[in-house]
């Protein structure tokens, strides 16, 4: 409950908001909890016991929030999410995240098709796999066609496969001559497409097809982005480090989130990177962008680092994309990768642009590090922030080289969704993949994220469940049990660890004086609940820059209003996002 109270506080000490009677995890060291926290002008004033904080910092205009014994943590920070791009699409997508049975997933598909108007698509884009379902299987094309015979349907599965119903095949005009190099469009015995699309060397068929399934209008994109940021606020996410992505063009596809930032409606601090889109023109793109913008350029009207350009990546060159499709053998990067990458790295280091680089396999990382080390000899990195994304099979020797160059690693829980597929292809891993414990022991900065939403869900508590158990979404023990993380370390990766990826490690990730007033009141006590129950946690109140941006349960009346999703038939209006 939220109250206004009076009390003796000087103008200098006045708190805009105080949370009291809580279990406040400062994250400064394991086991340190306070009862109360005071905020002023978007920053933390102090933490301490409830009596002292109330006596010192409240006055007539202070908002008081009684945490009623609930746990409060720093806001969660996803260091690798495609939030800006998802904002452009969220209102068009049916989400199977959290759905427990294939039966219910197919019911949702049929229900959504009934309200989707002619000419529009029914789409499920990532965030699920068969192992989350009780049935432990994917839908068949026959089942999809039976559920929705009259509207086009497109469903993507990880990065390796997609389902296109018969109506969708007709709308797109796909036939035996349709070809996407590096991908397979399956044909039946009569030479007609079955509706199954497979990534082989590249996922071109999957994502070129997705691009043909319709776009929202500019007004709808802004509304869709607002709904997506609200959705991730509901899990306690207060920051993302956006990794850009395929088909996310600068600056056109950044305008919807920019509009929210300029209106003061962007409720997630967003540091974003720039991803060159056209093969062979990457260097020219980065030269152009370096002349147009600069790292840390903030466009949020109300808060620091609210919508800030951060650097280059996650892909810098088309020939450096070793995408992770564990349905197929490892991608071997072409021999020209090094010569393509070197001039871009030189340009970025010379201009002091932070960069991040997608790399799944150790074999790719070894070759990329060769380029970095060559550049560093005559154009020193000298503390420039850079990091690899993913790094599932990075080796000890490669980690030592990363550390020597001052780099970091942004890890995700992609194996939560792909562990069974990896094991089928390569066998049961004998150590932690990615080797997070080794990274931390070596003093390498590590940020945590999801890579949502085209593979994984954006729900951070599922990712924390993975860190604490080493299990996949289907319950398979993927990591050796002795390799799992303790709760403090795991949460630290999702708070202070991720803050390093945007150069904000001194500004957020802990609840202490002078840091950003970004925090979450949790539905359950993360520190005492079982690892299995961690994945059920949600936010009761999410605070960004000292303002309530989301509230539920006993605080629901304090949740800021949001307009209904548009178009009116949007799945968001009927199902929401993650199925809690």
UniProtKB/TrEMBL annotation:
Give the matching Pfam families: Amidohydro_3 (PF07969)
Q: Which UniProt keywords apply?
A: Hydrolase
GO molecular function per UniProt: hydrolase activity, acting on carbon-nitrogen (but not peptide) bonds
Keyword Cytoplasm part of the UniProt annotation: no
- Which parts of the sequence belong to the Amidohydrolase domain? 63-550
- Entries under PANTHER family matching the protein: IMIDAZOLONEPROPIONASE, PERIPLASMIC PROTEIN
Name used for this protein in its record: Amidohydrolase
Q: Which organism is it from?
A: Mucilaginibacter conchicola
């Amino acid at each position: 409950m939220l109250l206004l109270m009076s009390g003796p506080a000087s103008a200098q000490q006045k708190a805009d908001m105080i949370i009291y009677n809580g279990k406040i995890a400062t994250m400064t060291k394991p086991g340190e909890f306070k009862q109360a926290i005071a905020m002023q002008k978007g920053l933390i004033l102090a933490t301490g016991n409830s009596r002292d904080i109330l006596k010192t910092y409240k006055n007539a205009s202070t908002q008081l929030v009684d945490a009623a014994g609930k746990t409060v943590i720093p806001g969660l920070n996803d260091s690798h999410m495609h939030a800006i791009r998802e904002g452009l699409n969220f209102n068009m997508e049916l989400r199977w995240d959290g759905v427990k049975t294939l039966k219910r997933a197919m019911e949702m598909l049929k229900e959504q098709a009934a309200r989707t108007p002619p000419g529009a698509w029914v789409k499920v884009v990532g965030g699920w796999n068969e192992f989350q379902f009780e049935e432990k299987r994917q839908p068949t094309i026959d089942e999809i066609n039976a559920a929705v015979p009259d509207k086009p349907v497109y469903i993507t599965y990880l990065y390796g496969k997609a389902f296109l119903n018969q109506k969708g095949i007709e709308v797109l005009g796909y036939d035996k001559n349709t070809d996407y190099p590096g991908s397979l469009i399956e044909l039946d015995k009569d030479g007609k497409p079955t509706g199954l699309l497979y990534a082989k060397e590249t996922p071109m068929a999957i994502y070129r097809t997705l691009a043909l399934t319709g776009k929202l209008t500019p007004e709808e994109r802004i509304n869709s982005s607002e709904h997506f940021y609200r959705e991730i606020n509901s899990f306690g996410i207060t920051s993302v480090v956006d990794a850009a992505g395929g088909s996310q063009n600068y600056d056109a596809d950044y305008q919807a989130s920019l509009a929210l930032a300029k209106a003061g409606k962007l409720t997630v601090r967003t540091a974003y990177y720039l991803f060159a889109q056209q093969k062979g023109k990457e260097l020219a793109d980065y030269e152009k962008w370096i002349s147009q913008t600069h790292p840390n350029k903030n466009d949020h009207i109300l808060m620091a680092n609210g919508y800030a350009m951060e650097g280059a990546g996650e892909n810098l060159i088309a020939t450096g994309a070793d995408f992770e499709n564990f349905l197929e053998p490892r991608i071997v990067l072409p021999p020209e990768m090094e010569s393509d990458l070197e001039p871009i790295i030189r340009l970025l280091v010379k201009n002091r642009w932070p960069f991040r680089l997608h790399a799944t396999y150790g074999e790719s990382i070894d070759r990329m590090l060769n380029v970095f080390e060559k550049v560093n000899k005559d154009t020193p990195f000298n503390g420039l922030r850079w990091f690899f994304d993913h790094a599932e099979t990075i080796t000890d020797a490669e980690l030592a080289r990363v550390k020597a160059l001052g780099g970091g690693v942004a890890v995700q829980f992609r194996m939560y969704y792909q562990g069974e597929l990896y094991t089928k292809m390569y066998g049961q891993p004998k150590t932690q993949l990615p080797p997070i414990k080794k990274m931390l022991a070596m003093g390498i900065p590590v940020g945590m994220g999801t890579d949502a939403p085209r593979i994984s869900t954006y729900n951070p508590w599922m990712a924390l469940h993975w860190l604490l158990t080493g299990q996949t979404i289907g319950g398979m023990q993927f990591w050796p049990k002795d390799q799992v993380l303790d709760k403090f370390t795991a949460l630290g990766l999702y708070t202070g660890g991720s803050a390093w990826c945007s150069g904000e490690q001194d500004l957020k990730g802990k609840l202490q004086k002078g840091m950003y007033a970004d925090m979450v009141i949790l539905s359950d006590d993360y520190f005492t609940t079982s690892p299995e129950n961690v994945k059920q946690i949600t936010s009761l109140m999410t605070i960004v820059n000292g303002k309530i941006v989301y509230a539920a349960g006993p605080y629901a009346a304090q949740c800021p209003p949001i307009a209904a999703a548009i178009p009116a038939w949007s799945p968001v209006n009927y199902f929401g996002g993650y199925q809690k």
